[in-house]
Specification:
The chain is about 50% helix and about 15% strand. It is of the alpha+beta class.
Length: about 100
């Protein structure tokens, strides 16, 4: 194989990879904007003890000021992702990290 063919093949491989990487980055950025990603607004994390009968919904609701159902649902997702858990799998006696945002 000659060097010119190798350069052309390498370029043809790299170009689609670059385009794919750009698309993925743009997709993640737009998803963060749509979901209202507020990670830059976090000022602290609070550790909350899970009590018997608690759910992520009740914990999220208790840690918000006059939330709507949509806001609670989004906060439940944030808490679950932050703690790397499923909303259905919390246990009394464990602790969760709850993000606190700028007011």
């Amino acid at each position: 194989m000659n060097k010119r063919y190798i350069k052309k093949a390498f370029f043809l491989f790299l170009l689609p990879m670059f385009v794919l990487a750009c698309c993925i980055s743009a997709s993640q950025l737009s998803e963060a904007q749509i979901t209202g990603d507020r990670t830059d607004d976090v000022v602290a994390y609070e550790s909350v003890l899970i009590c018997r009968g608690d759910t992520l919904w009740t914990i999220a609701e208790a840690n918000m000021d006059q939330p709507t159902e949509a806001e609670i649902r989004e906060f439940v997702k944030e808490i679950a992702e932050l703690n790397n858990i499923s909303p259905a799998h919390i246990h009394a006696g464990n602790y969760l990290l709850i993000p606190r945002y700028k007011v």
